[in-house]
Protein: FAD-dependent oxidoreductase
Organism: Streptomyces lucensis JCM 4490
Amino acid sequence: MSSWANGVVNGGVSFWYADDGLPAAREPLSGDASADVVIVGGGYTGLWTAYYLKKAAPFLRITVLEQKFCGYGASGRNGGWLYNGVAGRDRYARLHGRDAAVRLQRAMNDTVGEVIAVAEAEGVDADVHRGGVLEVATTPAQLARLRAFHEHEAAYGEKDRELYGARETAARIRVADAVGSTWTPHGARLHPVKLVKGLAAVVEALGVTVHESTPVTEIRPKHAVTPYGTVRAPYVLRCTEGFTASLKGQKRTWLPMNSSMIATEPLTGEQWAAIGWDGRETLGDMAHAYMYAQRTADGRIALGGRGVPYRFGSRTDNDGRTQEATVEALREILTRLFPSLAGVRVQHAWSGVLGVPRDWCATVTLDRATGLGWAGGYVGSGVATANLAARTLRDLVQQDSGQGGRTELTDLPWVNHKVRKWEPEPFRWLGVHGMYATYRAADRRELLNPGRGSSRLARVADRVAGRN
Ligand SMILES: Cc1cc2nc3c(=O)[nH]c(=O)nc-3n(C[C@H](O)[C@H](O)[C@H](O)COP(=O)(O)OP(=O)(O)OC[C@H]3O[C@@H](n4cnc5c(N)ncnc54)[C@H](O)[C@@H]3O)c2cc1C
């Protein structure tokens, strides 16, 4: 469902569906069934898992159960940054040693190429452009963080990352007040929905059963329960990310965090000439409440950031409808970065949910005692991570069923990581809103007092929220 206000299409799941419309749902489950593996959730995690398992063991009977349609969640709404970031790497370094975290980082670097290669091999055209990731600083405080970030990434073995001054940054993209940037080749821009739709078609063609309009209400060992019947399988894999709280018993597992986006109308040649951005890098900044953006294949800017971060009681979604204040805040970021676009029309606004574990660490787990598995908690970095998680789930299932042994992936430090649940309400709501209010206050302080360096407020918020 979408609505119009000030000429902006608001909701409708996301802008990425604007051209072709929402897909017609596949047939729902009709009665009890059985499978070898049942996967709950038809986003990147669920579909990649189905893909790799079926490729590894074509005889497996795999069923995907999706509450609406494949790509209804974050996989159909994201910013299209296919990049090598993974939530929790620093904590994994503290828990398992730096070498283990470096292995995780290397696996993530390779994952960018893996997604591109498989999409190409399977004939999925997702408007991929491999221009790397450019992150820009626009205040002295942001520049200090940018330099520290650059050093930090290099220490995880990223020797091909580059640091640019103001002039080199402007040669790539004219962001107002940019004082420096850092660039890594480990990233690409893509069209999220083209990828998820393509993947769903590929797994179906491989012989995976995909039921849509089929909400799973409860997951138990060997059972995925829906209003239309129960699917029994030795392995039940939960790939529900930001929607996990809607499953029985999972209310406090991963917090559903909102992220919101806008897309402009297509820019003219003249407007693009003023901005540059010929390399089509994915673009981010170093604000505490950061923004992320891409130059779309059809010549728009799609830009996202935090809106209302979290809704009381872990409520999740209303087809992407976004508060007016959030649309305005994103429009302001757009015109602050690119003042020449002050008159440009925003055509579409939407939101989606991310999954945030209590310790902000992405995980992949298979409980060998029950056959229950899950992957997610990617926070805001799941486009590539979901692929690595899916290959890891494949290896864990293969290992458990005696068809494979330990692999490089099953030895990664995020495998079988345990974390406590979120606090009950109202503490959950107060904590998250407090954290984001603090980030915004820290950004405002840095803008108003450019000489004073990085605000301590944000560090305090990080600590309180369990991010550090
Ligand atoms: C606005 C936004 C921008 C983002 N930008 C980026 C980005 O640029 N780069 C990046 O790396 N990451 C980004 N992310 C995060 C990234 O999109 C996600 O991490 C990733 O898509 C997660 O994939 P997933 O398959 O695990 O979850 P989802 O895509 O959310 O899929 C879960 C699926 O499970 C289904 N489901 C849920 N519960 C049930 C149930 N009970 N029964 C049946 N089905 C169910 C849902 O309908 C959904 O289709 C962004 C996220 C958002 C919201």
User: Anything to note?
Assistant: The mean pLDDT is 91. The two ends are 38 Å apart (CA to CA). Residues 2-82+192-254+359-400 form a domain with the FAD/NAD(P)-binding domain fold (CATH 3.50.50.60).
